[in-house]
Amino acid sequence: MPKSREWHLVARPQGWPVPEDFALVETDVPEPGPGQILVRNLHLSVDPYMRGRMNEAKSYAPPYELNQPMHGGAVGRVVASRAEDFAVGDHVLHGLAWREYALVDAARAVRVDPDQAPLTAYLGVLGMTGLTAYAGLLRVAEFAPGEVVFVSGAAGAVGGQAGQIARLKGASRVIGSAGSAEKVRMLVEEYGFDAAFNYKDGPVAGQLRAAAPDGIDVYFDNVGGEHLEAAVSAMRVHGRAALCGAIAQYNATEPVAGPRNLGLMVGRRLTLRGFLVSDHEDLRPEFVREAAGWLRDGRLRYRETVVEGIENNLEAFLGVLRGDNTGKMIVSLPAE
Q1: Can you give the pLDDT at residue 253?
Q2: Following DSSP, what letter does each residue of 94-161 receive, concatenated?
Q3: CA–CA dist 146, 143 (Å, integer)
Q4: Domain 3-124+303-332 sits in which CATH superfamily?
Q5: Nearest 5°: phi and psi at 330?
Q6: What CATH fold (topology level) applies to the domain 128-279?
Q7: Disulfide engineering: 134 pairs with which of 72, 198, 241, 287, CB 3.0-4.6 Å?
Q8: How confident is the model at residue 35, as a pLDDT?
Q9: Which residue ranges in the chain fall short of pLDDT 70?
Q10: Is residue 162 a contact partner of residue 136, using CB atoms and an 8 Å limit?
């Protein structure tokens, strides 16, 4: 019987995850039952939100179970089917990553076309991360043409797209922060940001003030912490922030201090609004239509950091938490 390898969470991480919290387990490849498909995964997504699901605390998504395979976005090829709507050879997007073979209920799989876009794009620029950027900027932050936009974590998959969408939709100025000089150059020279800075070079507030001396209208937050405090100080009257993530505190073992300047929200009538992409699925057709057009025209750029092999899935995930990736982090597996 053929074998499959899959990653299990075997202990709840305390602070930063360590290899001992995980195990790469070999299992038998299952046979599909009625209404199921067997998928040989080709590309796996690793994302910052997965760190929260490793905790036992109740959250917007159930925690990963101990000694069970973890999951996340994946694209693969159907190798066996007992579902009417899928045939062997179809490529599908589904939610059972962190493994080589996935037994997927057909109702939870979406067919994707490798001739329309690279398969990895369905995990990033045309997938969940892209929709997150689109919904967060346009619906949650209510961006309007002519406004000044600041994006933290701007060299990541979500942030890079959020900044470019702002530019494409008529922002007067787009500013990004990133963690290296190389990423800063990419934001300006490749993604078309008007300004960018390395948050490791000095206090965020001072660098943001230099990049946006007249203030900002919209903040797309992927980081939290010092970045959020700096953005609140820089916001003009009626400024809005879309709170997408807080990677700066995901591995904290002590309570994290909130921004110390929230009193500014009253006089400036500011709005800070958290969101989940799952609340905005109705935007997906509009998003895919627009984003696909921008990609065809060359107006929307994206990067991927690709790690090869299921055995390196954990290291790729830890790399996302460290900020090693530029754009979307993908784990690619060899085809059969």
Answers
A1: 64
A2: ESB-SBSEEEEEGGG-EEE-TTTS-GGGGGTTTSHHHHHHHHIIIIIS---TT-EEEESSTTBHHHHH
A3: 9
A4: Medium-chain alcohol dehydrogenases, catalytic domain (3.90.180.10)
A5: -125, 140
A6: Rossmann fold (3.40.50)
A7: 287
A8: 97
A9: 1, 250, 252-253, 336
A10: yes
